[in-house]
């Protein structure tokens, strides 16, 4: 293989992303806006889980495929969420700023998520909170950005954004923040894995030497 073709070869990542939150919070609308650049107010409620694929040319060396899992709002208390969450590396939790009860459910969604899926080192997967429908009158804590920052810090959210699928506000920015964090985690976990492999091979060699199994041929 020539140097030029090696240089032009892109790293290809496939990441599973969960989109969760109460029924009617706007999860499907956000995904449609992000993936298809499309909005309509006429969606049927998602039953179970739906899927979408977003391909990002992240930079000249990196191609990212996001497999977005749109999980029905009524699924939180079901046994299927453990199956749906499996192997996810990031998540969005969505609430509707016009309905304070959907915000009250956010902590329960986050707790459910953290209990059912972790990264390979046991830490929670990165999660971005989306305060959706920000083009409409807002209810509750969302009106105080300082308290929202505190809330997200206390509940270990990577970041939070006010979003509107209708007016295309902060959808791309929120996705970029999540993917950036996923890539950071990927780099760190791969580095740790390489260190562990190095330690393992040194350990094997040391044991072999102790047992007199090293040959000088």
UniProtKB/TrEMBL annotation:
PROSITE patterns documented for this protein: RAB, RAS
NCBIfam families on file: small_GTP
Function as written in the Swiss-Prot or TrEMBL entry: The small GTPases Rab are key regulators in vesicle trafficking.
Protein name, as recorded: Ras-related protein Rab
GO CC entries: late endosome; lysosome; membrane; phagocytic vesicle; trans-Golgi network
UniProt topology in membrane: Lipid-anchor
Organism of origin: Zophobas morio
Primary subcellular site in the record, as a coarse category: membrane
GO molecular function per UniProt: GTP binding; GTPase activity
Listed CDD domains: Rab32_Rab38
PANTHER family: RAB FAMILY, RAS-RELATED PROTEIN RAB
Keywords: GTP-binding, Lipoprotein, Membrane, Nucleotide-binding, Prenylation
